[in-house]
Amino acid sequence: MRISFGELRIGDIARQRIQASLEKNWVSGGENVAEFERLFAAHFGYRHAVAVSSGTDACVVSCATLYGLGARRGDEILVPACSFVATSNAVLAAGFTPVFVDVELETLNIDPARIESAITPRTRAIQVVHTMGKPCEMDSILEIAQRHGLTVIEDACEAHGATYKGRVVGTLGNLGAFSFYAAHLICCGEGGMVVTCEDALAREASSVRSHGRPCGDIYFDFQRFGLNAKMNDLEAAIGIDGLAGFDEVFETRKRLLYRLLDQTRDLEEHAHFLVEAPHEKVAPHAFPLVLKDPRRDARALYKFLETRGIQCKTLFGSLPTQHRAFSFLGHQLGDFPVAEYIGENGLHFGCHQYLSDEDIDYAAEALHDYFAKA
Ligand SMILES: Cc1ncc(COP(=O)(O)O)c(C=O)c1O
User: Pocket around ligand 1: residues whose beta carbon is below 6 Å from it?
Assistant: First the structure.
């Protein structure tokens, strides 16, 4: 594939730290993990950062901290109907029930206007997703959460460094979850981070990630539900390296994203493209689009781009009605019309820092060729 979703290139900082770990015969969580947590928190302005083994685990751990706030098994967490599956699987994995809320076509994010009617006496939290790096409409979401006494978890796995009204994602709600899988703005191979500015939640998250043990040093004292969700020192070494280059990666990706957006402005009659509003800074995660006319056939476009060497993925679609994994909840097709439309008519492809200007121009040309032909 000429245009992939991302690449991992391991730099000198990581190599030296990995080598040092190997020489110490210690590769489980240690100095590198502690350093990565410290640097990540400092770089983005979080009070606490708790490194975990994946973005999925960052979501599971975040959800499981709700027990410390009085939640009970089976309580409900609101999630967007259209997102990568990990957000909703995390709710199940932590012992809660996902309640899906439809999304907005233009932002791909949870629709604040539909949140309130999904709240029940068992709702404990809203786990929003800043899809494709675009921050959710947080003022409305936080206002609803506050009125109903709900915790807000930001799944920021696709949104490292994005800001909303001058505040970085992960500081807007109570907890934030990040992924460091390949293709994300910081990559460890596998890895994730839970961030929070609340001391009690940080203690809870640290304990959940390590079998529910207390954060002190008494072994085999299990105080709460827990997992082995720990990051290891080899992954953290790669993360430290990625963080050192983060600002440059962000700027390069953003420049390339705008290069492609600028070259596809004349295609706006055919598709919704990403829009960055003045109050926000979108993290350049990838290049999403949703066709305006279903007859343009997103599956055909997907295949067309792939034959041109552009690796594509759908835009997830409606988890409760277009994916069997959540059919046990009993929803019917039509219950989440916007998520379903995006599922049928959306796709995204990579826009990462190792692409050249020529690659971007090539992608723009491929899109023009498709719409000229269709
Ligand atoms: C929104 C969202 N949440 C969670 C995850 C899960 O992260 P990971 O693959 O690191 O488990 C991803 C992964 O891409 C994601 O996009």
Answer: 54-56, 59, 83-84, 86-87, 129, 155, 157-158, 179, 181, 192
